[in-house]
Design a protein that fits this description.
Strand order of the largest sheet of chain B: 9-13-8-1-6-7-14
CATH class of the largest domain in chain B: Alpha Beta
Distance between the termini of chain B: 56 Å
Number of helices of chain B: 7
Oligomer: heterodimer
Strand content of chain A: 25-35%
Mean pLDDT of chain A: 94
Number of helices of chain A: 9
Number of strands of chain B: 16
Distance between the termini of chain A: 49 Å
Low-confidence stretches of chain B: none
Shape of chain A: elongated
CATH topology of the largest domain in chain B: Rossmann fold
Order of helices and strands of chain B: EEEEEHEHEHEHEEEEEHEHEEH
Structural class of chain B: alpha/beta
Helix content of chain A: 25-40%
Number of strands of chain A: 16
Structural class of chain A: alpha/beta
Largest interface: A-B, 88 and 85 residues
Shape of chain B: globular
Amino acid sequence: MSIVVLAWGGGAEPAAAVKEVLGGARRLADASGRAVVAGALGPAAQGAPAMITYGADRVLTVEHDALAQADADAYVDAAEAVCRQVGDGLVLLPGDRLGWEIAPRLAHRLQAGLVTDCVAVDWDGSRFVMTKPVYGGKAMARLAATTGVQVALVRNRTMEALAADPGRTGTVEPLTVSPTSGRVKVVAHKAEESAGQVRLEDAPVVVAGGRGLGGPEPFKELEEIARLLGGAVGASLAAVDAGWISPAHQVGQTGKSVAPDLYIAVGISGASQHVAGMSGSRTIVAINKDPEAPIFRVAHVGAVGDYKEILPAFLEELRRIKGSA
Amino acid sequence: MHIAVCVKQILDPEISPRAFKIDPVRKEAVPGSGSLVIGPFDLNALEVAVQLKERYGGRVTVLTLGSEKAKEALRRALAMGADAAVLIDDGQVAAKEPSVTARVLAAAIRRLDSVDLVLCGRQSGEWDFGQVGALLAEELGMPFVPFVPRLEVDGQVLRLEREAEGGLAVVEAPRPCVASITNANDNVPRLPKVKDIMMANRKPITTYTAADLGLGEAEAGDAANRLEVLELFIPEVKSECEFVEGDSGAEKGVNLARKLVERKVI
């Protein structure tokens, strides 16, 4: 039995999300005595040798013109072919937009149980157990699929990539598939409105503001901190609803899920629906004038006080630190 | 144009964590701990459907899988502007998972007069599996477009905006098609007026059982379950927050930056 990792995006170097899921798959494979098979689809096929260094034992590559774009119909076909080639077992997919789009359709075709938005996948000695947040993050569910093929869509940045090990060995085999192009055609792209240079979901640092900021103006200061730390600006639903910032920045159950190394919440009370989208962050910093705010229950470092006094000094000190670094 | 909108009645997601209770044996939220509402994204989907009807003409049928209580959700949808409603009584539907929900909804959609567009919310706001839209497309053999904030109709072609990596893409799909709707500034659900609520009481609700739809134990019963819920729990939040000291806000700001260096975060 094997653990399949479906991979797309990236090039000679696999996409960050793929490396994370490969790392997670490697650990599960070692625990359960299985092999890791990567399905490198479309342009990701160029990354096949690197996927071995990140934990795969075997890479099946599928290359076809229909996979040049993120065409879900074609990707479902290719993913299905890889899974049928490998047979029963666990299938892991990165939880980006394409993952959310193809995972249910793949599971439907393989009559597989699928758990989306997994924040953990564990081997309990006899089966794989998938953990996901439910009820807007107020509860967690642990689930197992009872089917031969079990599919888990993994939330980005919840598994840890291994360091590339050039000494690892494995095989790369091309798989001939003729995926059909979909009936949905992309006719235009619109750039995300001012979401900054770094994509919110990929940003190693997110600086987010909420209702406590009191208006759109203070987001400029958050942007400056984000720029200094190589991060992106996020926002709570309250700030988006108030029209202070575009919905592209919204973090939470109804917005984007992020799990950066550092999440700085400024003037965010910590409603569960917001926490659902950021609780996986490695270090959470909260700045809030209310010491009882729920955000402090998930924060690792807190500063109680008026952000108008705290932020300028914080920014100044950051500049000094970054300048001397 | 005939638009089918699938909705789910859920426990109010705005309920405070303090009021939220789970039944660890049944492995679900205690129903009485909050009011029942239509899922937030399903409301966005209804709003999109009603706006399309206002712009292009046609009608909207709303469907749900649930108990007698779910009729309240259907009445709400009818008050928002849907024309007819279908309740699939979940009495015979033992399995609780997206693949069964989609199979049952698809069977009911096939009973409707030809449908040009099927909409649902991108996720329920409850268990948030986020699968039903894609599964409906597979069941019905229709194209699928996820994460759609808005769309327009151009003859037989639907032009949809969808969230994609790095921004929005505009895509074209033929009719009929399934789309899952995400929230946006222009699909905030309308609040029905008293007159709309009164009118809604006169609109028809058709009820089907799973058997009416030709679905038996193997398709909709426990045997159809592909997932087993092992445990549902409220995570213990042990506050481990370290508060930075300082006599003034400015001092706290400086100490905060230093604390992050000390913790090797920056």
